[in-house]
Amino acid sequence: MERRVFKRYDADLLPEDVTRVKLIFPDKYEIEAGILDISSHGLRVSIPSSSVFLSIPQKDESVKIIFTATQLQVIGRCIYLMNGSSGSMLLGFYVLDPNDQSKLSKIMDTTY
């Protein structure tokens, strides 16, 4: 049974320039990631195995998420992290701030 209230869009439906983000972890470590899916309240990203992880956010830590193409910034709370296929790392973020949720909605409004 689907528990989500907000529609989530797969990255395959997004323009290529919207699918790349930079994550800035609490210790200021920065890493590039690819969006797997997005909604007005959060997103799921993948960090490739080729990246060297000096730090990984813990569950409930806040991470600054910057959309590379537009420099749009939101703050997301890490709600899960798990190992993906081929050694990648999958992270899920929930965006709490209504202003940041509005920014995510605008990305989807201009995309769909």
Give the low-confidence spans: none
CATH class: Mainly Beta
Q: What is the string of helix and strand elements? A: EEEEEEEH
CATH topology: Thrombin, subunit H
Biggest beta sheet attributes: 6 strands, antiparallel, barrel
How many domains make up the coordinates? 1
Structural classification: mainly beta
Mean pLDDT: 87
The tally of strands reads 7
Q: Return the CATH architecture.
A: Beta Barrel
Number of helices in the DSSP assignment: 1
Q: Between the first and last Cα atoms, what is the distance in angstroms?
A: 25 Å
Shape: globular
Q: How large a portion of the residues is in β-strands, by DSSP E?
A: 35-45%
CATH superfamily: predicted glycosyltransferase like domains
Radius of gyration over all CA atoms, rounded: 13 Å
Helix share, percent: 10-25%
Task: Please state the oligomeric state of the protein chains shown.
Answer: single chain
**Within the largest sheet, what's the order of strands?**
2-3-4-7-6-5
